[in-house]
């Protein structure tokens, strides 16, 4: 399960306080409740925060390995030589401010009541029009510390989605999986380690393009690239003013044309967003000013990761190392940021506040990027008969009912329609040609040529109406493109044409729609016709699910145990069986199956994530009763 909180501070400042703070609580995108409170004036927080920033800046000016640009004539008039004491004082005042009754009782307590599970995924969007508020160390808020999978995300109060070009079903084609890595001025720091880490975790499967110390025109040219980019990563020196605005990137070490501001590259950035840019990462000192300037310029932000303050080079390197690792593990972006920041806690003694320096900024309407949306996780593998296709995510190749042959791509593109007409007139050729066209569609599906793949699957289905594989593949493609009606209709076609994988999928859909009798009919056909243990397992699991809902616990237990015996990777069957055993008054026996659920469930699949949360809630309770 996941929750979203939009915490809007409204108008105000540290001297006057914030008299109208609202917290909108959402579940699965739907507003559940809205709470009203306030924050008192907090001049002590403001003063300590300014001292901490000066301390960070002064410390980094004396380091030879800092990502803040050391200006030749730069001097600081204030010296703070006890940053740890200043930061501890700031944390204390922040928590005092947030624990005041008008905020704690009216907002935080109610949020804690709504979100009882401390492991639930929670995104808190901090809406304000003052970038100085974003710069505060919100990570010290006790609410965030108590919820392991919670992250606070900066957002402006005004935003809108930018229409994107080259779209099919909501997916920009050319930019998918393309990452532009800009390595800027590296005087005194080692940005090559950033490049090494991104190559290590994403280089094998994503399209990485490195731009080494470019001039401003070279950077603009890349932002106007016709294919577009999904991620823009910058490593190097940068700076913002003391108020967290007027961001500046030091892109090279030349005498002239060595810096850029948002104003300099905003048109290229707008173009890149239209082309599909979804994430910007500025792994450089005080890059919060870049995010603030983007808002000021009225640019509809994708997700942006910036730094609140000057940061030592080795900590910046550790952050991106952890971030890319968690993204490679398919964590949602906000959770990857949270975990990467947690990994920086080990450096708090060396650099107080280190873990709170990185910050994710994003609007609530933007669907946060996950690695599985990138090119590097398009999971096309050869199908295996032993895997239950509860949510199959790769196309089906034709089984050897007919001899296989291939057709060259260019020839296929030119002549497929003509051959289709010929095949319809000659039934003996039809199955062979349909198989080749289906294979051609799979190859284009793998290569993200979605239009060609879609045409191919439709064409194969029309040539050989007795085979459901191309319809099944079309359903997967439509689902990937968020074309729900197309996906449903194609899956129905696959069912009618006798493809057993489709029986499992359509029966699942009918259960979710609360149509148990229809689901049981489809499951019956599935068990009669399929020859594959993985498909049988999925259908027995679905029948056990129906019988659990009907409170026919003995029959449900029989079906679910059969499903588990046919396939050892069945977390949903384990989850359902645990519920059945609990309903039958056997909590100790259910313990084993809750444990098996945790072992094999995938949190990136919503239904399995729910099972994980259920298991985590029940295991301590069951364990205590032993």
Structure description:
The protein is an alpha/beta fold and 626 residues long. Helix content is 48%, strand content 13%. It is built from 23 helices and 16 strands. The chain has helices at residues 43-61, 83-98, 101-114, 131-135, 142-146, 192-202, 216-223, 262-274, 288-296, 313-328, 333-342, 409-425, 430-446, 450-463, 469-480, 484-496, 500-512, 516-529, 533-549, 553-566, 571-583, 587-600, 606-624; strands at 2-8, 18-27, 30-39, 121-127, 150-155, 167-168, 171-172, 178-183, 207-212, 231-235, 237-239, 248-250, 259-260, 279-283, 303-307, 358-361. The strands form four sheets. It has a six-stranded mixed sheet, sandwiched between helices. A five-stranded mixed sheet has the order 3-2-1-4-5, with helices on both faces. It has a three-stranded antiparallel sheet with strand order 11-12-13. Helix 17 (500-512) packs antiparallel against helix 18. The radius of gyration is 28 Å and the shape is globular.
Q: Any key phrases for this structure?
A:
626 residues, alpha/beta, five-stranded mixed β-sheet, 23 helices, 13% strand, globular, disordered C terminus
Short description:
With 626 residues, this protein is α/β, with parallel strands linked by helices. It contains 23 helices and 16 strands. It is 48% helix and 13% strand.
